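re: the backbone from monday

yeah here it is again, tokenized this time
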């Protein structure tokens, strides 16, 4: 582990897109970021905290092939369902 300072979110995402060969235009939109953070919050508070990254990963696997508007709607629906 190095003593380099942590990257800001935009720099982190740019690096991640590069490593994963993801076109930034196809990456996570600001609305998706917000709902993914909500999903992680719900998972961390309604279950063990370690459920948060696994939950967001599984949602990504399940919804990855959907058009962005539908993906966003499905993520919002998942958050609402898990909050109840």
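seq for it, each position gets an aa:
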């Amino acid at each position: 582990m190095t003593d380099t300072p942590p990257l800001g979110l935009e720099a982190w995402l740019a690096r991640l897109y590069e490593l994963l060969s993801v076109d930034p235009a196809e990456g996570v939109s600001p609305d998706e970021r917000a709902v993914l953070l909500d999903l992680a919050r719900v998972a961390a508070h309604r279950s063990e905290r370690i459920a948060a990254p696994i939950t967001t990963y599984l949602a990504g696997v399940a919804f990855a092939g959907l058009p962005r508007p539908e993906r966003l709607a499905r993520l919002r629906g998942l958050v609402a369902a898990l909050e109840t």
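The longest helix spans residues 30-46. The helical segments are 9-20, 30-46, 51-63, 68-83.
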